[in-house]
Amino acid sequence: MADDGEFDDDELDSEDSLTYSNGVIEKIVAIATREAAHVLGMKGNLMHFVQETLGAENLTKGVSVEVTDDNRVIVNISVIIEYGAYAPAIFEDVKERVTERLAAMTGLEVAGINLRIEDVMTREEYAASHKRAQEAAAE
């Protein structure tokens, strides 16, 4: 800043900004994760369960993000995977998809991805449990 209280040209140019809410980043991560082979679903917390019971689908369920001071993203994901699938391969697939989608859509760099396997089910078990949850919500 100049001594006379005016901004120099470099500072004037820096007034523009582009930011993303955590919800936007979480949604991109959740959609990319669901695209990975053998990921049956996302595992949320009690609040997500209540929302789903009331009929609301929460697309960011099972995802939390933290933006670091240097504008990189740490991603935490909780999933349900298909029984018999190789978890390390699922992790690599999720990591690749999430990193690519975030870079392509936001320009943000991923500092780290933490994938937590919350449950293992067959596709039939998952479909049956999902159907029961929908029926319970309809009552």
CATH architectural category: 2-Layer Sandwich
CATH class: Alpha Beta
The largest pleated sheet is described as: 4 strands, mixed
Low-confidence stretches: 1-5, 45-56
Classify the beta-strand content into a percent band: 15-25%
Number of beta-strand segments: 4
Domain count, please report it.
Answer: 1
Distance between the termini: 64 Å
User: What is the tally of helical segments?
Assistant: 5
Name the average pLDDT: 83
Rg computed from alpha carbons, rounded to a whole number of angstroms: 20 Å
H/E series, N to C? HHEHEEHEH
Q: Helical proportion? A: 40-55%
Structural class: alpha+beta
Overall geometry comes to globular
CATH topology: Alpha-Beta Plaits
Put the structure in a nutshell.
By secondary structure, the chain is an alpha+beta fold. Helix content is 45%, strand content 24%.
Q: What keyword list fits this structure?
A:
about 140 residues, Alpha-Beta Plaits, 4-stranded mixed beta sheet, globular, 5 helices, disordered N terminus
In words, what does this structure look like?
45% of the residues lie in helices and 24% in strands. The protein is α+β, with helices and mostly antiparallel strands. The protein has a single domain, classed as 2-Layer Sandwich (Alpha-Beta Plaits), CATH 3.30.70. The radius of gyration is 20 Å and the shape is globular. Mean pLDDT is 83; it is low at 1-5 and 45-56.
